[in-house]
Specification:
Elements (H helix, E strand, L loop, with lengths): L1 H34 L10 H10 L1 H26 L2 H7 L4 H46 L8 E8 L5 E12 L5 E9 L5 E13 L7 E17 L5 E17 L3 H5 L10 H13 L5 H12 L2 H10 L12 H29 L3 H24 L2
Antiparallel strand pairs: 1-2, 2-3, 3-4, 4-5, 5-6
Helix pairs in contact: 1-2, 1-3, 1-5, 2-5, 3-5, 3-9, 3-10, 5-9, 7-8, 8-11, 9-11, 10-11
Length: about 375
């Protein structure tokens, strides 16, 4: 029985790898076509475009793995049924429980690999890809990635957690090395009265000791201070004073690690980066639903691989007269497309209707799990 289980697992894994490679080739081709418009700008040439596409493949692996697992498993099982191998395995004593156990072991292994890829490999590759674009498109052409400026909210809190100051930060360009260009900071007091506007040509991060807040060294600084003072007639008057300094140390909760994730789509960020940025948004009373949704998807999505393999197993019990490999693959691809669409649909519905993020990302997997259990139950009666 162990020999049969290993053979079953090996063939299913081979089918999944084959389908995944096919999908990756297709997606890489379309990604390269999308990059053709940018080739020739700055230092962006065909080798850089190919490297950018290759760096995006780990993210595609993470996104496509559940669908590839479903189609690859159905393909392998359909071949078994076509050649009557599955019937021979059952005659040799392979029970439904043994087949399900072998599929689940493979599913857990693939889920762990997918989680590792989504947490470490894909985010690092995506960050490197964005840095590549900054190098050859941003600096080379003099145009920043954030053409209209990146706006962030930052807060200064006292030891008791009370908010002492609110700041709105505009970054004209985020450099590939983590530096900042064309920085503008608007500072407000607890009553949201404007107290200062800081303009800086550049900003460089200064690594702080453990437990200390982040520090930035701003260069080419011009600060406009605003203050309300009483006039001789007793009226309040707004006074402004301008001060220019070559350097200025700016203490902030923002750091390069936090800023770097903003150049990456939430779905391609690591769970740790999503958790950190979500905490930062909540501390500054900002809407974090989009990033919370992506965080929960990181937790739930790898488990969908196990559900997909459970859903594919009943196809092996269908005899050749119930449809050839082509028909079974058609059903498998259709189920994969439906799952992919439902993932996007319920994610958007969750954002629009402010559903709990864990529920919005779990609904497609729950629906397919129920469908898999129903099919497995009917399979046991045949």
């Amino acid at each position: 029985m162990k020999l049969i289980a290993r053979y079953l697992t090996r063939e299913i894994a081979s089918g999944i790898v084959a389908v995944l490679l096919g999908f990756l080739g297709l997606f890489a081709f379309f990604d390269l076509i999308n990059e053709l418009d940018d080739i020739g700008q700055g230092g962006y040439r065909l080798p850089q475009a190919v490297l950018y596409v290759l760096l995006g493949l780990p993210s595609h692996i993470y996104e496509l793995m559940p669908v590839a697992a479903l189609i690859g498993c159905i393909y392998a099982l359909a071949q078994f049924a076509q050649n009557s191998e599955f019937t021979a395995m059952r005659a040799a004593g392979m029970s439904r429980g043994l087949a399900l156990r072998g599929v689940l072991v493979l599913g857990v292994f693939l889920a762990i690999l997918t989680a590792v890829a989504g947490e470490w490999v894909a985010p690092m590759a995506e960050q490197r890809a964005q840095q590549l674009r900054m190098d050859v498109l941003g600096k080379g052409s003099g145009v920043g990635v954030f053409r209209s400026g990146l706006w962030l909210k930052d807060s200064v809190r006292g030891p008791d957690g009370q908010r002492l100051q609110t700041r709105f930060v505009n970054i004209g360009q985020l450099e590939a090395d983590g530096g900042l260009s064309r920085v503008e900071i608007h500072e407000f007091d607890p009553e949201f009265r404007l107290t200062a506007v800081i303009h800086a040509e550049r900003g460089r991060y200064q690594r702080a000791a453990r437990g200390e807040p982040s520090r930035w060294r701003l260069e080419g600084v011009e600060t406009t201070y605003f203050d309300v003072k009483k006039t001789a007639t007793g009226y309040d008057a707004l006074h402004a004073a301008v001060e220019k300094t070559p350097e200025f140390t700016w203490i902030s909760e923002l750091n390069p690690a936090l800023l770097s994730v903003l150049a990456i789509a939430p779905d391609r960020m690591s769970a740790l980066a999503l958790w950190r940025y979500t905490s930062h948004l909540k501390e500054n009373a900002q809407n974090a639903n989009r990033y919370e949704l992506a965080l929960w998807k990181k937790v739930i999505y790898p488990l969908a691989i196990i559900v997909m393999l459970m859903l594919a197993l009943p196809f092996g019990y269908l005899q050749a007269r119930a449809g050839g490999i082509g028909l079974k693959l058609f059903f498998g691809i259709s189920l994969g497309v439906v799952f992919y669409i439902l993932n996007g649909l319920f994610s958007n519905l969750g954002l629009i209707n402010t559903w709990p993020p864990w529920l919005a990302v779990s609904i497609p997997s729950i629906v397919f799990l129920v469908l898999a259990l129903i099919m497995l139950n009917r399979m046991g009666r045949t």
